Prior knowledge:
Number of strands: 4
Order of helices and strands: EHHEHEHHHHHHHHHHE
Number of domains: 1
Distance between the termini: 7 Å
Radius of gyration: 20 Å
Largest sheet: 2 strands, antiparallel
Region (Disordered): 1-49
Amino acid sequence: MPPKRKSDGAAASTTKKGKKASPVPDEDLSLSRHPRWAKVSASGNSDAAYRELLRDPEYAYAWLTACKQLLENGTLEGEDDEDDEDEEGKNDPHCDGGATCPCMDPVAEHPEAKYCISRAGMQRFNMVREMFQYRDPDTFGMYTFNDASAYGLLEVMENQILDFEEAHKNWKAQWAVCEAVAMYIGADEFPALGHVDDPDTREKFLGLLGKMFLTMLDKLASMDLLNTDSEVKDLAVVMTMFVQNSQKLGQYGLYFPEDFPINVLAYALKHDIVLSELLEVDKFVKDHSEEAAGVSLPALDSNRNDPWKFADALKQYRSSKRPNKMGGDAYDITTWTSAKRKANAFDKRNDPCPKHMIDALKKGMFIGLG
C-alpha cells in the first residue's frame, strides 16, 4: 500500500488527465481541512483533495460522459468480455475506464453520448470508495470486531449526509453528493450495511438518505431546474439509480421507506422527466406510475420550510447516535495509534501502517490500496 499523491482527475482509476484546478475559492464551501477529521487521517486527505477540486467550480461541475456499465456497476474497469445489449438490440460500447471508450471525456466532445455525470460527482464517488477501504480491517490484514466494515461503511455514508447539509448554499455541491450516493448504494460493498446489528439505526439512516434526495429534488423544482431542459444533465440518470438501487437493497434486508421510490417517480412524472433505461427501471415505472401520479408533492411557494423534514430527521438521527457521534473518521484505521493497529493485526506484531506511510499521510498524501 504505497503512499501516493492525490490525483486531481475525475476518477482515481481513469487513465486520462484533466487540467489542474485553479486556486479560485468557492465561497459556498469551506476549503480548509474539516474539523471532522483527525490530524492524521487518510479520510481527511481524500476529503481535502476533493475540496481542492472545488476551487475551480467550472471545472469541478463540468459534465463528463459515462458508460452504462460505470453507472450500473460502479466501476470504470470492464468486468465482462461481452458488450451489454440495450433494448433496441444494439451493443453498447465496452467500458474500459476511458482507455479507448469515451468514458470521462467532456460531454461537449461526444454529443452522441447517452449518459453523463459531473466531475465532482464522479470524484466524490471514488472518494467514498477510498474511505470505505480505509475502514475495512481486511484491507490492512487486521481483525477488530465482527462487522467492523459495516460500521465503517455507515460512518462513510454519514459523512456524505453531513456534507450535503453543510453545502445547503451550494446546490451543485449538494447534487454531487446525490450523484455519488445514487451510484454507491448500487455498489458491491454497500450491502455490508446490512450487518450493522442495530436495525433501528439502519432504518433511520436509510430514511434520512431518502429524505436527503427528496429534499434535493424539491430544491431543484423550486429553482425551476427539475425539467427536461435543466442544466442538470443527469437528472433522469440519478433519479433512476435512486429508484432501482434502493429497491435492489431489499434482498439484503436493507429497506428505504416504502414510499421513497414512489415519491421520486412522482417528481419525474410531474416534471415530465423520463427515467433512464438504466437498471431495467421500466417495470417499476409501469407498475407504479398510477400510484405515483396520485402523490401530492409539496407545493412550491415562497414559504418553503424543509417540506420533507430532512432537518428534523437529521437532528433526530444525530441524537440517537449518542454517545457515538455521526460521521468522522473513528473507524478509519489510519487514524488509530500504532499500538492499537499492532494489537489488532493478524500477526500481533507489525503495524499495518508503517512509519513511512503515516509520515506520508502527514504530508497530505493518500494511500493506494489496490
